[in-house]
Amino acid sequence: MSSSLLRAKTLLSHCLLIPVDHIDDDADVGDLRDVDSLMFEGIVIEIEKAIGAEADVMDLLQLRTVRDVARMLDGQPLNISD
């Protein structure tokens, strides 16, 4: 597992109050727990703390999976086009 993936899983574990080992690398964030707007806001705040900047709104709108969180933590744009 990459370090950014572990960081993403740790961040989500903290925000969603679930154990890291219950988070699959390819899981949809919404499937981990019933994520409401306040939980999502908490995830956004933690991502922004980790990257030291505001997250791009377009990336946040496309954020779906644990790997997406890892990409954001690495400073990579999501650029999902489908």
From TrEMBL:
<dbReference type="InterPro" id="IPR036736">
    <property type="entry name" value="ACP-like_sf"/>
</dbReference>
<dbReference type="Pfam" id="PF00550">
    <property type="entry name" value="PP-binding"/>
</dbReference>
<protein>
    <recommendedName>
        <fullName>Carrier domain-containing protein</fullName>
    </recommendedName>
</protein>
<feature type="domain" description="Carrier">
    <location>
        <begin position="2"/>
        <end position="77"/>
    </location>
</feature>
<dbReference type="InterPro" id="IPR009081">
    <property type="entry name" value="PP-bd_ACP"/>
</dbReference>
